[in-house]
Amino acid sequence: MGDLATTKAILGDLIAHPTVSSDSNLAMIDDLAGRLESAGARVETFRDASGQKANLLATLGPEGDGGFVLSGHSDVVPVADQDWTGDPFTMTEREGRLYGRGACDMKGFIAAAVAMAPHFAALDLARPVHFVFTYDEETGCFGARDLAGTLRDKGLKPRMALIGEPTSMRIIEGHKGCYEYSTHFTGLEGHGSGPERGVNAVEYAVRYVARLLELKVDLRARAPDQSRFEPPWTTINTGALVGGVAHNVIPGKARVDWEMRPVQVSDADFVKDALHRHVTGTLLPAMRAVSPDADIVTEVIGEVDGLEVMDLNAARDLLMELTGANGADVVPFGTEAGIFQGLGMDVVVCGPGSIEQAHKPDEYVSLDQLAQCLDMLHRLSARLV
After folding, report:
1. Chain-wide mean pLDDT for the chain?
2. Among residues of the chain, what percentage have pLDDT more than 90?
3. Which uninterrupted H or E stretch holds 116?
4. CB 3.0 to 4.6 Å from 180: which of 121, 127, 256, 259, for a disulfide?
């Protein structure tokens, strides 16, 4: 397939842009904007408040609602402390696989979509095709959330969306949400020989984590009877507990980084309510009995709703027809799909590469998976005329 060679070339260029979430993605967005403009698309970019990140919205076909969105995120996770065989930002090909950071998560899909742009442009499209590429998905879906506001402001109402996250080309109709937090503890420093005269922020952070562990057990009992997720309940993970400066100093500061992956929104509400009661009814009164300035503050890093399984989902049904799949799955990992669903679109997740390769050293996408993706997009184009 001729598009495969083009896709490989584009993917090599995209991998060469080191779009780690902590850094700018502007060079990659400019690259994509130029390619889509050359294909005849109407292209707009929208920078964030820092001016160092941008979303891209490009449209082929007629103006108006009812369009189809092809979406992917431009950012990748860091490569620090990972043992790569070669340069992670130089694509290499070995045994039918293309290696490089972002190869499957998710520059492979972006490359395939952009390679198809001239084909879409040559058609007499009955409805618009939107190319949507975002920033900072890996750190909280900030770009997609900003883009949702942009689409609302523009009054643009696409009908369906395909999020090309790596699913080994399986059709995904649902996934859990992803809520991330950092809880900050302010105590009172002092000498370790007199612990009763200080407020040990680390110890209170440990008590907070202990409550998270209790809630993990409670959430298992709340798993819906018909949950298709694995595991079928809402999960909690404590990612980090940071605090303290020396063995003999009562730590005055601590931080707990944690997340939950809710199966249902009510589980998230249950956890937040339980923690609020634990903090205000137990931890803070004990801390402030020693120091009135003691405090516990939870910073919301990101609250991204899951992709809710819907009985009626035109995007799912269409992709099943295009790929010949006889069913759709659910996954535990999060994507931007719930944000698009919140805008009223029918949404499905399907893309080349395996999530098992994402975020790892020597990340790769196979040429076979890219070819399957291109075939799906070719079949999609025939349904949009």
Report:
1. 96
2. 94
3. none
4. 259
2-175+306-382 and 178-304 agree in CATH topology: no
Q: Tokens 């998976």 label which residue? A: 369
Supply the pLDDT for residue 265.
87
Cα angle 132, 340, 384; round to 5: 60
What does residue 197 show for φ and ψ, rounded to 5 degrees?
A: -95, 0
| Residue ranges per structural domain of the chain | 2-175+306-382, 178-304
Output the furthest CA–CA distance in the chain (Å, rounded): 79
Angstrom distance (rounded) from CA 277 to CA 378 = 54
pLDDT tens digits along 307-364: 999 999 999 999 999 999 999 999 988 899 999 999 999 999 999 999 999 999 999 9
- Residue pointed to by tokens 């742009």: 117
pTM of the predicted model as reported, rounded to 2 decimal places:
0.88
- What are the residues facing 203 on neighbouring strands? none
Of 89, 114, 112, 83, the residue nearest 102 (C-alpha):
89
Q: How far is CA 246 from CA 10, 134, 197, 252, in A?
A: 51, 42, 17, 11
Mark whether 75 is an active-site residue: yes
Alpha-carbon span 34 to 57, nearest angstrom: 12
Q: Catalytic residue among 3, 75, 146, 173, which?
A: 75
Cα(340)–Cα(254) distance, rounded to whole angstroms? 36
| Superfamily of 2-175+306-382 according to CATH | Zn peptidases (3.40.630.10)
* Candidates 1.10.940.10, 3.40.50.170, 1.25.40.10, 3.30.70.360; CATH matching 178-304: 3.30.70.360
Catalytic residue among 136, 137, 138, 165: 137
183 contacts 200 by C-beta, under 8 angstroms: no
Residue 304, beta-bridge partner list: 178
Could you tell me the CA-to-CA distances from 45 to 56, 134, 271 in Å, in that order? 4, 10, 38
Residue 226 has pLDDT above 80, yes or no: no
